[in-house]
Amino acid sequence: MILCAIAIIFFLGYLAIAFEHPLKINKSATALLLGTVLWLIWFKTQTSPEGEAQAMHHLFETFGDLSQILLFLVAAMTIVAIIDMNDGFSIITSRIKTNDARALMWIISGVSFVLSAILDNLTTAIVMMTICRKLVSNTKERLFFAGLIIIAANVGGAWSPIGDVTTTMLWIDGQISALGIIKSAFLPSLVCNLVPLIVLSFFIKGKISHEHEPEVPEAHKPTPFEKKILFLCGLCGFLMVPTIKTIFHVPPYLAIFFVLGVLWLIVELLRRNHPHQNVPRLNLYHILRKVDLASILFFAGILLAIGCLSATEQLTAVAKILDDNIGDIRLITFTIGIFSAIIDNVPLVGAIMKMYPVDATSAIFRQDGFFWGFASYCAGTGGNLLVIGSAAGIAVMGMDKNLTFGWYLKRITPIAFLGYAAGAAVFLAWN
Prior knowledge:
By secondary structure, this protein is mostly helical. The protein has 21 helices and no strands.
């Protein structure tokens, strides 16, 4: 009964987030309330000290995972803010000469696809959305670009062992190898990215309007050296995060905090030698005000809610129902990918890792076997079906207040599903 109530409240909370604009209630407030209410209900139903201790253990586990993601998000957004406030991204935007909408779509999508395989989908989404806002000033046009960034960021991470949390989980646990996942999932992921891009190319045409930057006092403008040093150090720092994580076997948030520390030191050295030492763009306390706290709290609420579903084993129950009622492992995996748009793919993949252990004698369940490659693809790309189905989607939604659940559902979800299904078909044929 209690588990049913938790599921119903979760569904109602998702509806409230989806209808944020008609309800005129900020989605961050709804998400925070949803996440905390679910845990309060579950704690209230614990009638024994053992039950309370178990619930507390699950809460600590959830908060541990949550805090790692939030810390990573805060550090990544701060690094992007440092580069942005010092006009570092103009190094990229000044080299994109085209104002043709179709050409720009292909450039933005292609860069996002490649970059997310090297970094991760969350960082890629933040960086590319920042660049997109400078290149496309028209709100309606920019929303389509935002949708393509979300798709490309998720899809690019699905074929790389370091591009998505789920592929990293499977790689570390031994279900896939680095070369194995690239060989099996690259082509399906490429198709999954190309299909929505091709479809939108028929509808998005003409010239785009660039954003006019406000005039900055000459004394406060960054020098070419400051632009280059902060941009290159920030970008190289992002690229170093997976390397630091792999070499030192540390969580990603520790690696990105190291990068932020180095960049902060560079900012302090530049500020110390600047004739105007109170320049806001070289003052990290001022830069931190640009970090969108509301989107971070939205992230926290959503992950708290999903963590409660995971702790009450409702995700494992869903996987078991699929296994009992469908039977065909291909359909099960395809359906799990669709569920990852509603429920975070991390606990879903964690559930199937428990249900289907690696079996060296099985062509399906051995390392780099059919199931694990298909699961990586489906879990990594299924989140494209809803804007709140992935970390990249949530981050972009927080960065652009005009991107709503309903708009994405109507305009992007259909083409995202076409890409998801086309990539799955290619995977089945290819493997």
